Amino acid sequence: MCLAIPMTVKKIEGSKAIVESMGVEKAVDIALTPDVKVNDKVIVHAGFIIEILDPEAAREIEATWDEYTTLLNQEQK
Amino acid sequence: MDIIVPAHGSGGKLMNDLITNLIQSILGSDSIQLDDAASLNLPTQAIAFTTDSYTITPIEFSGGTIGSLAINGTVNDLAVMGATPLYISCALILEEGLEIETLKRILVSMKEAALKANVAIVTGDTKVVPKGKGDSIYINTAGIGVFTTPPQRRQINPGDSIIINGTIGDHGTTIMALRNNLTFSKGLSSDCAALNHLIHDVIRNYPEAIKFMRDATRGGVASVLNEITKNASFGATLIEENLPIKDEVRGVAEILGIDPLYIANEGKVVMIVDSRYTDGIIHVLKQHPEGKDAAVIGQITDQFHGKAYIETKIGGKRILPVLIEEQLPRIC
Amino acid sequence: MDIKKEAAVLSQFRIDTPVAIMEVCGTHTTEFFRTGVKDIFPENLRLIDGPGCPVCVTSNDYLDTAIAMGWQHNCVITTFGDMMKVPSSYSSLAKEKSKGLSVEVVYSPMDAVDMAEKNPEKKFIFLSIGFETTAPAEAVCVREAKKKNLKNFFILPGNKLTVPAVKVLLDSGEVNIDGFILPGHVSAIIGRKAWDFIATDYGKPSVIAGFEDYDLIRATLMLLHLLKDTTPKVLNEYARVVRDDGNPKALEIVYSVFTKGNATWRGIGIIPESGLDLKPEYADFDAYKQFPVEVPLPKEHPGCRCGELLRGVIIPTDCPLFGKACTPEHAVGPCMVSSEGPCSAYYKYGRK
Fold first, then answer.
1. Quick one: chain A helix, strand, coil %, rounded to 5?
2. What is the ipTM of this complex?
3. A57 touches chain B (CB under 8 A)
4. Which of A20, C32, C127, C242 satisfies CB 3.0 to 4.6 Å to C79 for a cystine?
């Protein structure tokens, strides 16, 4: 229902942040995430940052899934 | 600041000045004739003849203008038939208020494009419409080309390769980014270019290889494939992983919720070729600046007759539907 | 990450008795097709499309009202591109634009505020639609317009909340849903805990999912594992974005501007407390209050089954109009016209 994409914060200027993804830059509003910092990965929807990505959680999740798939692929073989 | 006024289209002195001092002086007084029609010599009897009108906002963009677009678009329409483009006509519809400087830049870019494509602009027309009745400038170009080899249309069969001469969606993305206040850290330009030399080179090296060619303009690559497969006894499958798409194009497409395969290109040709010649053709394409990112993007198949499919990264398949709606930025 | 390995795990997952799961979110509907994940589903797994397309569930009279306001009060209608082609009772925004109504497509609601600020001589109505994900941005814009003291910016509140709609589906008992794939971006705002009731009150498992191909594969796998479990749970596949309590700042802003009210959902009817109305202190920005219009009773196509579809009772191909009277070129119902409508997704991607 809601198209939102991950982008990286390059600059913060007042109520706006310049975010970037794949070489594309866009000025977005930071009112919903006032704690946002430069280099944060964020989720952008309709010109607003709606949430900040948690890199620690992302790493843990990846590790878990790698373990899971390796295990299952072994089982299936 | 000089601007276009109604008298520039009235047939009087101002109009004559505009034509001689600006248009002819840029596009070439030796070629553009003030006569009602150009008289031309054609080397063969089989000719290709095309016409197209150009409207675009903004009229100047990174990588081109409405002028270079008009020349390259018409050249490409002839070239994808396998014809050698020779002559172009140029009709300008100018909106009152257009700055003369802007018009000058557009004419210069037309001339440059014509020189590069090795075509002559041989006849033209200028009209002025009142302020508010046009979008700055419209251009119509017609083109004549000659066939030195038979038209490049042959029976398409399963197993044929689908080739493109470079990255997908650059032109439309450049324009959409401008309209939606998106900028680029390293820049992105329209791929606006004439493809006649590149195509000619492929035909010269592989005269029997090309089954079909089409420039992937409005509607993008997906629309070309839908056109080819419509009512056909074969299907087409693209391989998502093989699609040459710039990061910037992917980025804009994601932000605005659109699909690069449906975005317009102005310097891309989709070729269906006999697979025996695939590697050779890619090699030839890569010799040209317009073909340096050439890639085999898919195959004609005996499956899914009449439809175009794409095999996604995870190995699933989905249809590439016929484009229906204009692509608008969306939130869901 | 090896996406092909993960895909293989899903496609080879053994399911002994048929399972039906609902993806609540319309973007998931489209992405399941677009990424090809639906194509590699194991046997016995069925996906039911939920009501999670804000365009699809917007009732006809909302658009009828917007069009009438534009004409009768000489206002510029600003909207997300999604709404342009949606059929109203008698027309659509795209058709009215061709007839001369001022309609501007914006990427962000803040673009509409900027337009109003730059063109003080014109009145601008922003069509405030969307679920929990979009409402915070729209709320910020209303606050901004108030701060800037803009007298020519208004919104037509049409926002909807997904949690009450999912409750209605579960209460109706019309559909047998074994588990849910929950919307990632709605959850980014409202938080994982907001969905706990699905497990505690209804005993069904669910997984909050992101939108990449791997997210869909993983969330489906997690749900399939949960279905084998005896204790129902809400798991969070999208934990890199979705927190237990969501985004409290966003929620605070939403409820500083809006208050919950009844909303009419296409195909479902009125759901109490499932919409967002502007609070009295923002009445100056409420197009309903500022631009009274009379609109004829909304008209729905008699054969259109979008309603049942949005309740998950039928799939698009069950509708007799699907692909015949109703195609994306000539959409009868909103599920065909919205780019993430289930009918549009089936029409575009689902036919082999």
1. 30, 40, 30
2. 0.93
3. no
4. C127
